[in-house]
Amino acid sequence: MTLAFSLAVAVVFGSGAFLVLQRDLMRVVVGIILISNSASLFIVAAGLTQGPVPILPVPGGDGASVSDPLVQAMALTAIIITSSVTALLLSVVYRLYVSHDSVDLTDISEAEVREAEFLERDTYPEEEVEPHEEPGQEEIEERSR
Amino acid sequence: MNSWLTGSMLIVLPAGVPWALAAVCALLDGRRVWVGRVAAVGVGASFVSLVLLGWRVLSTGPVEVVAGGWPAGVGIVLRADVLGVTFAAVSVGVILVSLLYEVSAGVRSRTFPALVLFMTAGLSGLFLTGDIFNFYVFFEVSMTAAYVLTGYREQDYQVRAAFIFAIVNLFGSVVFLIAVASLYHLTGSLEMQTVAARASAVNPNSLITIAAAIFVAFCLKLGLFPFHLWLPAVYVGSHPPVAAILAGALANIGSYGLLRFGGEILPEELELGTAAVLVLGSASIIYGGLQAVSRRNTDEVLAYSTIGQAGYILLALGVGGTIGFSAAVIYAVVNSLNKTLLFLAASLRGPLVGAAFAVGAFSVVGVPPAVGFIGKIAAFKAGLAAGGTVQVVALIAVIFAGSALSFIYMFQLYQRVFLADKPGDPWQSKNTSSRRPRALVVLLAALVLAMGLWPEPLIVLSEEAATALTGSPSGGSP
């Protein structure tokens, strides 16, 4: 049983890690979902006892072994947290999609650099273009408006 | 103290009040000034109850409550000791200052007050829990609030920074969760003290994997050298009060977690990994310092400085014992105050703001009247306490080099932000910022100076906290 669990955790975590390293943001989100779920699997595997459902009356009377209820509670909590954070991540990806029409990281950073250069040219016609400093200056742009 | 204000009440208030208010504020429009003020009252109430709780903990010892009236060992334990209360009070104080700053400058998003309240609730719950799984839950509450806060102004680069931040830190959370599950499997308990007692009976070699997982998870939060890649992107994108909250309050999770799990629950494993901890800490100090010197953007310099400063905490932790742990506590507190002051002051203009920034810069460097001096002394003391001449010399050299680097980058920054006269650069516009944010920054600078001039409370607090960790006044050997 332990071997089956550890194999499952390893495969799920590994596929998640592979997806997180992609440049498509949707894949990254799916990867994080897989990784989080591998943690839930791990929690279930960490249970101390195995047996029937831990609800009274326990089959076999008091003192009979039931499956560990604590790990199930923990796994449930972890699943809830994962699902809400996933919703947040998806909304962030959607926000990026709306402004860039793409969920590919390469496109998005290119668009950002272009935008930065454009703003730079707009604000300081004579100065050297430095995309690095853009965030701060863009902010001031907005503040001074 | 009034009879209704018992320890069990006090321990619930710091997380309970902001939590309830957060639920209300989430439904209101946070851009209205009064909503921001209500949120500030909530955070303030949390801070006051933390101070009262701290007073009680200092005078009568740790306060412990089992939630829901369950017998001990069944219910979730809330536990306040000196270490937790210190970190909670500092973090909530930092959040309070940043929230007041933002409210006086004008909140621009309807969710900001609610998010800040949620983060207050999460952080104070995290520092006041005695249960490792509960720790994880509160940790996620505050982290989730932080993910959203990073994208506060909804600029594209901020949203992208929030995405990177969320992905990297979720990864850390998963690693931590796996470590929690393994600790439960090994010890059969989730209560910190029971876990610590049972873990000490286990051969350290079999626990070292779990200890390493926990170490990696917290180093990710703290942004130490090999795990720092998300940090500059996030800080550069952030709005100043948000950056102040991230660097001053959220980073405390990392230092607190390292102290709590390394110092109290898995001390033998920490000893086993001393070399790795010291090397990573030194690497962090040097790397952060060098990168900060080479950067020109204010936020970037401060972000890399954060990486460097986190290294000192790790060094002190690696030295261990009461001296090392108390140095780590002092340094974490000092670093929170410094970074909050610097992030807030760097975006303001007007009389006294430059002076406030200079105080923060002196504090980072460790020049006497500022509180940073106390932190540096503690770090040097911890360095001297390390066993072996080679180790002592190496540590002192690293701390000295780090201080020299911080001297260079802080005053380069001061020069660029406040002294350089670049025509046409909006940073240099003669418009002074409004009075209230400036008053806040000046107050914070005064606090940094006052704590440096009268350091006894901080030193006593840190020693008490370290004693609470090691269990004996003399402490364990490194």
Radius of gyration of chain A: 24 Å
What is the beta-strand fraction of chain A? under 5%
By oligomeric state, this entry counts as heterodimer
> What is the approximate shape of chain B?
globular
Approximate helicity band of chain A? over 70%
Query: Uncertain segments of chain A of ≥5 residues (pLDDT<50)?
Result: 126-145
If you average the pLDDT of chain B, what whole number results?
85
> What's the arrangement of strands in the largest beta sheet of chain B?
1-2
Structural class of chain A: mainly alpha
What is the number of helical segments of chain B per DSSP (H or I, 4+ residues)?
19
* CATH fold title of the largest domain in chain A: Helix Hairpins
Describe the protein.
The complex is a heterodimer of chains A (about 140) and B (about 475). Chain A has about 140 residues and is mainly α. Chain A contains 5 helices and no strands. Mean pLDDT of chain A is about 80; it is low at about 125-145. Chain B has about 475 residues and is mainly α. Chain B has a domain at about 275-420 and about 430-478. In chain B, about 75% of the residues lie in helices and about 0% in strands. Chain B is built from 19 helices and 2 strands. Chain B has helices at about 5-25, 35-60, 80-105, 110-125, 130-150, 155-185, 190-200, 205-220, 230-235, 240-265, 265-270, 275-295, 300-320, 320-345, 355-365, 370-385, 390-420, 435-455, 455-470; strands spanning about 65, 75-80. Chain B has a two-stranded antiparallel ribbon. In chain B, helix 3 (about 80-105) crosses helix 19. Chain B is globular. At the A-B interface, helix 2, helix 3, helix 4 and helix 5 of A face helix 5, helix 6 and helix 13 of B.
